[in-house]
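step=predict obj=SIMPL domain-containing protein n=234
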Amino acid sequence: MKNTFTTIVLIISTVYFGFSQTKNFIDQPFIETRSKVDTLITPDRIYLSILITEKDTKGRISVEELENNMAVKLKDLGIDLDKQISLSDLSSNFKKYFLRQKDVLKSKAYSLIVYDALTAGKVIMELEKINISNVFLEKTEYSKIEKLKLELKSKAIEKAKRNAIAMLNPLNQIVGNAIFISDLGYISTQLSGRVAGIQIRGMSSLKENRFKPIDIEFKKIKVESEVLIKFKIE
């Protein structure tokens, strides 16, 4: 019974202490500001999905031959086959497409990473020459995104304080310490979808060898960070 009474007293004390803290926080004069900062960055990781299928050549060229031809082209472009390309489906090397009752056409899917739009354009153009035309843009990324997110949060906090100072200066009041900070998160817009020739190269066809990829960038990624801060008014 004594232990039960002690527990009840402890709970009541804890609740009262928490309530007192909340009450003290509310009773303090404060100013609340919300700020957002954003920036545009050029992606430095471009993921391409490459589908090799016998269907594109109506079965005249095997997947194995197309695969070897692709490896040669990618090496010529300076692609590191050990680090930059991998099978999309590791559980199965081949997927088979059954046409009618006797014909079986195989396919194989790869994921390739390149580091700029010009190289992506060259890859697509060279693969088109060897009857590999199913290339998709999986996604784009920025390798230093975590560092950038921290920098944007810092800038958002600095902006929030500047806003608070600007609002209190006309009142001859001083911004004190932050008594509440909420990270409202960040937003990042990234590209994905089918790679059309015009998106990367500025042309709609690769069938004529005189065309060359144009050295342009992918659409920039927008990254933004937002914070909510309550500053004590001195």
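step=describe
Residues 2-27 form the longest helix (26 residues).
step=end
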